[in-house]
Design brief:
alpha+beta, Threonyl-tRNA Synthetase, Chain A, domain 2, ribosomal protein, 14 strands, five-stranded mixed sheet, four-stranded antiparallel sheet, Ubiquitin-like (UB roll), protein biosynthesis, ribonucleoprotein, Thr/Ala-tRNA-synth_IIc_edit
């Protein structure tokens, strides 16, 4: 069963060194040598600690509770909500309207601007609207969903290998539903060719993460703080200044889901439970650089449906087949490591 494979996966920690289909690669980079002394658990714990410290620092700056008016003009009725500036979120507003509105809301529109459901409101709102998966034009909702799937995949990958292999998440291209798959490019320090059973277990871990119903928490931090958080990841460390330059800002937008923290411009969906059916379908090597013996990045791909969107087995199998094809989305440039709007 899937659960039996999940237990086996977690207990053996993907002992790829014993698998015939894995080729261990050496790395000439000094960073890679140093990374052997790191552990995924220690890096993740430190990053989360820094995130929480910065969140608390920002919270302490809000010394007074200032009331704001939020105008809601959608179903089931128009109303004016009295909320707290820099504290209340669209999710709080939705729960005041009705539990039904709060449960189905994926994104918010705050005076016409896309807004994360758990992002604090910064002032009076003249028009608050909630977006859901059954919108007549789901373009923005679909992009947020695809982007959130990549973030969840990054979280699963960072946890799946535990401390056996030091994994560095690289990046994922801007979401494009037409490609047929969401992706994350990672550096495992080797050319890993997962079996069908290993991919199936990763799919199971995505479902487990979904079942935790974790919110996607947004936090904008100074670039120096972001660089400190990701000092153990050579890809993110290179991308962060480029992202700041592209946005003409000294700040970086981060998201937390559970114990996982990543860089993304957002917006993301409200919580992990809004992920429905999901399959991790393929893993492709991406050659990086010209140096011989340098391990490739791995492009790991998947396909998913939002919660509540049902599809028969045959139709979903067509989506899975398409998602197994190499996603030709923008490849990372290890030489320039330019930031992108993830």
């Amino acid at each position: 069963t899937t659960m039996r494979w999940s237990n086996r996966f977690l207990s053996t920690v993907l002992d790829v060194a014993k698998c015939q289909n894995v080729r261990q690669c050496s790395s000439s980079a000094t960073f890679a040598l140093a990374s052997r002394k790191r552990s995924n658990t220690a890096v993740k714990t430190r990053r989360l600690k820094l995130f929480e410290e910065e969140k608390e620092r920002q919270r302490r700056r809000v010394t007074d509770v200032e009331k704001i008016q939020v105008q809601y003009s959608d179903q089931p009725e128009h109303c004016t909500l009295i909320m707290n500036k820099m504290m209340s979120t669209p999710y709080d507003c939705a729960r005041h309207v009705s539990q039904w509105v709060g449960d189905r809301a994926v994104l918010a529109e705050v005076d016409g601007k896309l807004w994360d459901m758990h992002r604090p409101l910064e002032g009076d709102v003249e028009a608050l609207k909630f977006l859901h998966f059954r919108e007549s034009d789901p373009f923005y909702v679909n992009r947020a969903f695809w982007r959130s799937c990549s973030i969840m995949l990054g979280s699963v990958l960072e946890s799946a290998f535990k401390d056996r292999f030091y994994l560095q998440l690289c990046s994922f291209p801007a979401p494009n539903v037409r490609t047929g798959s969401f992706i994350y490019d990672v550096d495992l320090g080797m050319d890993w060719q997962p079996t069908k059973d290993e991919l199936r277990v990763l799919s199971s871990e995505m479902v487990r993460l979904s079942m935790r119903q974790l919110p996607f928490e947004r936090l904008v931090v100074p670039m120096v703080v972001a660089l400190d958080m990701f000092s153990d990841n050579m890809y993110k460390s290179s991308q962060i200044p480029s992202i700041a330059d592209a946005e003409k800002s000294d700040s970086i937008t981060l998201y937390r889901v559970g114990e996982f923290v990543d860089v993304s411009c957002g917006p993301l969906i409200a919580n992990t439970r809004q992920l429905g059916r999901v399959t991790i379908t393929a893993c492709y090597p991406i050659p990086i650089g010209e140096a011989s013996g340098k391990p490739p990045l791995l492009r790991i791909q998947g396909v998913a449906l939002p919660e509540g969107i049902l599809m028969n087995h045959y139709s979903y199998s067509i989506l899975e087949t398409r998602a197994r094809k190499m996603n030709e989305g923008r490849l990372p440039d290890p030489l320039q490591m330019q930031g992108e709007a993830q």
